[in-house]
Amino acid sequence: MATETLTLGKALNTGLRRALETDPKVIIMGEDVGKLGGVFRITDGLQKDFGDQRVIDTPLAESGIIGTAVGLAIRGYRPVCEIQFDGFVYPAYDQIVSQVAKMHYRSRGKLSIPMVIRIPFGGGIGAVEHHSESPEAYFAHTAGLKVVSCSNPQDAYVMIQQAVASDDPIVFLEPKRRYWEKGQVDLGAPLSEAYPLHSARVVRPGTDVTLLAYGPMVRTCLEAATAAAEDGRELEVIDLRSLSPLDLSSAYESVKRTGRAVVVHEAPSNIGIGAELAARITEECFYSLESPVLRVTGFDTPYPAARVEEEYLPDLDRVLDAVDRTFGW
Question: 0.90 exceeded by the pTM?
Fold first, then answer.
């Protein structure tokens, strides 16, 4: 297969199709994932090609979806559960934290829970209440879960397959505002040679400030780096990709060169992923830092109404302002 230009959403669809083809134990389940193809059409055409025993339309009951998937995973299946919107995951939170995350530990390693929980997350699409949440910190804080987020079509295609093939339960966060953005995807590269699932990646090298982001904010940081270059500043952008476990080796190496770091995410700042990153970077790179590690995040409020969400979301100007402030110390 040759390299193709795909949207992030289509890359996920293609990756799921490949997973279904590769392993007959892979099943997809969720609300409207079958005949409709998902509210964002990520599973479009899969039920038609693989049947309603492998791509299953479930009742509107997130706890039931996850609870059923736990039983299937224990019996050797590899369920991929779709949570239709981020704000709908909370009814399943008990199942995820109390069962999915703990079953392997509770059974002293005798049971594995090879399942993926796909969650479209973040804002920027003009949605109504409960449709633009950023719940990543809840899951990254939970021992026994792995949490990853793709930011571009190539990673979406590869990472979803890696997650399905993993024997660990993985919360797979998809940046819904980026579903329609296009990029080159290598459909022919063997999965065994792909970039590791839980490794961060430098997506733009730089020398002056390190920007750390994941999911929807990676593109925002790349845009900020392009704008900063016009003023003579070279920003290094790191896509974390994995939030649990965190891979900060490239971040440490970068900050020791640049002396400055800014963390960017949509979720509120209070006890968020950015706080953990700031703490670890300060511990590891204290003598290299020229300024405190700064955070650019959503505000500590419920997600606002669509008409004012652009005032809430971190944007290029807020990132550049933080970069400027790192030079004021």
Answer: yes
